[in-house]
Amino acid sequence: MKNIGLYIHVPFCKSKCPYCDFYSMRMCGGQADDYTACVLESLEHWADRLGRKADTLYFGGGTPSLLGGSNIALITRRAKALFGVDGEITVECNPSATEDDFFDTVAKAGVNRISLGMQSAVDSERRKLGRVADSKRVEECIKAARGVGISNITLDVMLGVPDQTAESLKKTIDFCLKNDVPHISAYMLKLEEGTYYYNNAEKLNLPDEDATADMYTFLGDILEENGYRNYEISNFAKPGFEGKHNLKYWNCEEYLGIGPSAHSFINGKRFFYPRDIDAFRLGCEPVPDGDGGGEEEYIMLRLRLAEGVVFDDFRARFGQSFSAKILEKAREFEKHGLVEISEESLSLTRKGFLLSNTIISSLIYG
């Protein structure tokens, strides 16, 4: 059986960012150690239940670095012992929520990849996004991680944020290039229902959809000129630095999620933990979420990747040829430069990435 990926959700933040709808809350005294104990207990439970090995481990949130380096190290070592994790181990960090010895402590436990929630290198934009640390602090974190041997670093960048322009985005891109990080994730701001931004949209000076789309193209062009490949809709990497854990999602491979709101896909079934930290602490069972891994889901996920759907891989997985009906519909999009069709594969272009939801829905369900 193939190795799975492990995901640990850490639902704590110093404060709630105005655009975020992920499950998170302010951390009170003692919760870090208490939550760590719950995660360790859950890891033991699933190791016995599944009897599977894992080759990636990803701490997401929330702000995982708020658990502290010693707790992240404790969970990492236990995951390695129980699941044999010896591959990519990633921790998401907020630059303002890392103690001085954080990177050294987690590196000694085996963490080898850091994801920094920068969002923008322009401090005025960062403040509007609820970020406390300035770009200097981001740079300090990059240097600190490299100083203990963690060279696989990714920066998050947001597009379409309040008052952002092509000129200000260029400053953020230049910051990424100057610091020579090997991976960049670029997400377009989406106004999620229930967030401060959603409830106060009329007060925000947001770039319109066309301007944001132009920013995406602008960023992609510059990064490709500097050796990055747009290997997934929102992700750019230098060769060999693609996010291995997240590739499991897009390749429709198996993974186990631990923590409130964490999702899993194991043995053809999808399930998730409720968005309820108290229920998780009491050892609740995850909620069934139906079957997974079917043809439609596989196509939808693979079309997020630049490689797209490779016909030989599709045939090997499902025992039949790729749909001629879908290819026929795809040829209409090909005329407009939105998809590429070859003898080997079907994929979206970068222009197509901007309309991915519409194109994929039309191909599968239209």
SSE diagram, text form:
Layout: E1 4-10, E2 12-13, E3 25-26, H1 31-50, E4 54-61, H2 69-83, E5 88-93, H3 102-109, E6 113-119, H4 123-128, H5 135-147, E7 152-159, H6 166-178, E8 183-188, H7 196-199, H8 209-225, E9 229-232, E10 235-237, H9 244-250, E11 255-258, E12 263-266, E13 269-272, H10 277-281, E14 287-291, H11 295-302, E15 309-310, H12 311-318, H13 324-334, E16 339-341, E17 345-348, H14 350-353, H15 356-365
Parallel strand pairs: 1-4, 1-11, 2-3, 4-5, 5-6, 6-7, 7-8
Antiparallel strand pairs: 8-10, 9-10, 12-13, 13-14, 15-17, 16-17
Helix pairs in contact: 1-2, 2-3, 6-8, 13-15
What can you see in these coordinates?
- This protein has 366 residues and is α/β, with parallel strands linked by helices.
- The chain folds into 2 domains: 4-249, TIM Barrel; 306-366, Arc Repressor Mutant, subunit A (Orthogonal Bundle).
- 41% of the residues lie in helices and 22% in strands.
- It has 15 helices and 17 strands.
- It has helices spanning 31-50, 69-83, 102-109, 123-128, 135-147, 166-178, 196-199, 209-225, 244-250, 277-281, 295-302, 311-318, 324-334, 350-353, 356-365, and strands at 4-10, 12-13, 25-26, 54-61, 88-93, 113-119, 152-159, 183-188, 229-232, 235-237, 255-258, 263-266, 269-272, 287-291, 309-310, 339-341, 345-348.
- It has a 9-stranded mixed sheet, with helices on both faces. The chain has a 3-stranded antiparallel sheet with strand order 12-13-14, with no helix packed on it.
- Strand 5 (88-93), helix 3 (102-109) and strand 6 (113-119) form a beta-alpha-beta unit.
- Helix 1 (31-50) runs parallel beside helix 2, helix 2 packs parallel to helix 3 (102-109) and helix 6 (166-178) packs parallel to helix 8 (209-225).
- The radius of gyration is 21 Å and the shape is globular.
- It starts with a strand and ends with a helix.
- The relative contact order is 0.11.
- The mean pLDDT is 95.
